[in-house]
From TrEMBL:
<dbReference type="Pfam" id="PF13640">
    <property type="entry name" value="2OG-FeII_Oxy_3"/>
</dbReference>
<feature type="transmembrane region" description="Helical">
    <location>
        <begin position="12"/>
        <end position="35"/>
    </location>
</feature>
<dbReference type="InterPro" id="IPR045054">
    <property type="entry name" value="P4HA-like"/>
</dbReference>
<dbReference type="GO" id="GO:0031418">
    <property type="term" value="F:L-ascorbic acid binding"/>
</dbReference>
<dbReference type="InterPro" id="IPR006620">
    <property type="entry name" value="Pro_4_hyd_alph"/>
</dbReference>
<keyword id="KW-1133">Transmembrane helix</keyword>
<feature type="domain" description="Fe2OG dioxygenase">
    <location>
        <begin position="164"/>
        <end position="283"/>
    </location>
</feature>
<keyword id="KW-0408">Iron</keyword>
<keyword id="KW-0812">Transmembrane</keyword>
<dbReference type="GO" id="GO:0004656">
    <property type="term" value="F:procollagen-proline 4-dioxygenase activity"/>
</dbReference>
<dbReference type="InterPro" id="IPR005123">
    <property type="entry name" value="Oxoglu/Fe-dep_dioxygenase_dom"/>
</dbReference>
<dbReference type="GO" id="GO:0005794">
    <property type="term" value="C:Golgi apparatus"/>
</dbReference>
<keyword id="KW-0325">Glycoprotein</keyword>
<protein>
    <recommendedName>
        <fullName>procollagen-proline 4-dioxygenase</fullName>
        <ecNumber>1.14.11.2</ecNumber>
    </recommendedName>
</protein>
<dbReference type="GO" id="GO:0005506">
    <property type="term" value="F:iron ion binding"/>
</dbReference>
<keyword id="KW-0472">Membrane</keyword>
<comment type="similarity">
    <text>Belongs to the P4HA family.</text>
</comment>
Length: 290
């Protein structure tokens, strides 16, 4: 009996000891795992992160980028000229050589500039509103590739894809030539239903005008409104054309309504010659140019 009970005791005791040993082993193992993860994590991981950061950020401060992004940081200097309308100035947007190349291409194809007519208007009734000569050139027609470069840069500056732009409208204003104040956006109540709207305009000045030829915004900050403004007058915010500089302004508010302060015109050239390349940017893709 004694032996039997002793045997049964050892029979029961042995598995318990083995089980307890296993439990201790496991507890020790997991305890070590948790400790070895927890404690050093607080110290080591941030250091690893810092290392990753140092490795991934380049000298120019560029970041890892998405599939359609680029690998470097770029600087396109600009100055906010006005919030009403939203107008930005880009000094030295293009080089003098690029400007001269565009003028050369355009010169071969200049025609008197036309107007988009409102209901009831005729070419005769609007004579004298826009006296410049101009031509439309798409970047694909330009074998030098300069227009494509400019177009690409405009799309980067605006973050509006290239195919939202119309062809470049290159204009020449000679002595006394001007463009009376107007909107680039089309008000459907005046022009009828529109397939798409011009939301922004980018003007690249191709020449420096000695005197006159400014781009003017007579209603800047809602000034001169409701005072019977003479649309031929050259008042308000005036931007002097300087070769290579760019001017971007938005014709509509973020909600799509036409911004009344985006009214603008080109003052008469008093001395020199004004060359400008205009890119109208629309809210819809412009398939025909691509
Ligand atoms: C802009 O117009 C507003 C309202 O007419 C006026 O209060 C404000 O002083 C103007 N800002 C400047 C800088 O002239
Ligand atoms: C659109 O935005 C402008 C400027 O913020 C605002 O004055 C106008 O009332 C808005 N129009 C509509 C229809 O929401």
């Amino acid at each position: 009996m004694k032996v039997k009970s002793k045997r049964s005791k050892t029979n029961l005791g042995l598995p318990i000891v083995v089980l307890l040993c296993l439990l201790f082993l496991l507890a020790g193992f997991f305890g070590f795992m948790i400790l070895s993860q927890d404690v050093p994590r607080a110290r080591v991981i941030p250091r690893l992160r810092t290392l990753e950061f140092v490795e991934e950020v380049n000298e120019d401060g560029s970041m890892p980028h998405g599939r359609t992004g680029v690998a470097s940081v770029e600087s396109i200097p600009f100055q906010i000229l006005s919030w009403k309308p939203r107008a930005l100035y880009f000094p030295n947007f293009a080089t003098a050589e690029q400007c001269e190349t565009i003028i050369k291409i355009a010169k071969a194809n200049l025609k008197p500039s036309l107007l988009a007519l409102r209901k009831g208007e005729t070419a005769e009734s609007t004579k004298g509103t826009r006296t410049s000569s101009g031509t439309f050139i798409s970047s694909s027609e330009d074998k030098t590739g300069v227009l494509a470069l400019i177009e690409e840069k405009i799309s980067r500056a605006t973050m509006i894809p290239r195919n939202h732009g119309e062809s470049f409208n290159v204009l020449r204003y000679e002595l006394g030539q001007k463009y009376d104040s107007h909107y680039d956006a089309f008000n459907p109540s005046e022009y009828g239903p529109q397939q798409s709207q011009r939301v922004a305009s980018f003007l690249l000045y191709l020449s420096t005008v000695e005197e006159g030829g400014e781009t003017m915004f007579p209603f800047e900050n809602n000034s001169n409104k409701g005072t019977g403004y003479d649309y031929k007058k050259c008042i308000g915010l005036k931007v002097k054309p300087r070769q290579g500089d760019g001017l971007l302004f938005y014709s509509v508010f973020p909600n799509g309504t036409i911004d009344g302060t985006s009214l603008h015109g080109s003052c008469p050239v008093i001395k020199g010659e004004k060359w400008v390349a205009t890119k109208w940017i629309r809210d819809q893709e412009q398939d025909d140019d691509f």
